[in-house]
Design a protein that fits this description.
This protein is α+β, with helices and mostly antiparallel strands. It has one domain. The chain has four helices and 13 strands. The strands form three sheets. Strands 1-13-9-8-12-10 form a six-stranded mixed beta sheet, with no helix packed on it. α2 crosses α3. The longest helix is centred in the first third of the chain and has 13 residues. It is globular and about 50 Å long.
Length: 207
């Protein structure tokens, strides 16, 4: 009965949004995280980042070379030079998804911003990251993250999928989501045999 209620709740919450992930394993007991609002989770906003600082941060977080991080962010050599010349500014907005003693995962959005004095606004989202490592533990994720830049100061997102204890995760993190636009990022998981937790979260981040 509990599994049926979870399924009905997710279907109702998604409404007209298509392809927001699929269950990979049956969810048993109290292993699910279903948070329709997620409004009690703290939002962390990074200091202003230059283009090169953002690239280095992405490279370090993912253990990849600088040039690969730049390419995954969608920048060619020419557009990277333009970002440096224009002194483009970026921020990382982060919020916890799961929150327990043993494991916590975090959504992170890298955004190009417009900033002057007390004014700040998001111009576009350039990368969607799920931080899956915590306190020496790393989980894999299969599902979908839907992201909508509703206005220049507000991001809405939905995470729908499953965490696993082993395997590997692949996704296309680089995006180009302008104001009023949206995208769905598919996370694929392979070589997994151990299910950890089903997760459905939707939330707003205010910049």
């Amino acid at each position: 009965m509990k599994k049926l209620l979870i399924g009905l709740l997710c279907m109702a919450a998604l409404g007209g949004i298509n392809n927001i992930g699929q269950h990979v394993f049956t969810v048993e007991g109290d292993t699910s995280v279903i948070d329709i609002l997620n409004k009690n989770k703290e939002i962390n906003i990074s200091p202003i980042l230059t283009f090169d600082e953002m690239v280095r941060e992405v490279a370090k977080e993912n253990g990849i070379p600088i040039i690969q991080a730049q390419q995954e962010l969608g920048f060619t050599a020419e557009s990277a030079r333009h970002a440096r010349t224009a002194r483009a500014t970026y921020r990382a907005l982060s919020q916890s998804l799961t929150d327990n003693v043993s494991y916590k995962s975090t959504m992170r959005f890298y955004c190009e911003t417009s900033e002057s004095g007390n004014f700040r606004a998001i111009k576009r989202i350039v990368r969607v990251e799920m931080i899956r490592g915590y306190n020496g533990l790393s989980k894999q994720f299969g599902g979908t993250v839907y992201v909508h830049l509703e206005d220049a100061n507000r991001i809405f997102y939905i995470v729908n999928g499953d965490f696993f204890n082993n395997g590997s995760t692949t996704w296309n993190a680089g995006v180009n989501i302008g104001v009023g636009r949206n995208a769905s990022i598919k996370f694929g998981v392979t070589n997994t045999t151990s299910h950890y937790q089903y997760c459905y979260v939707e939330s707003h981040l205010r910049f």
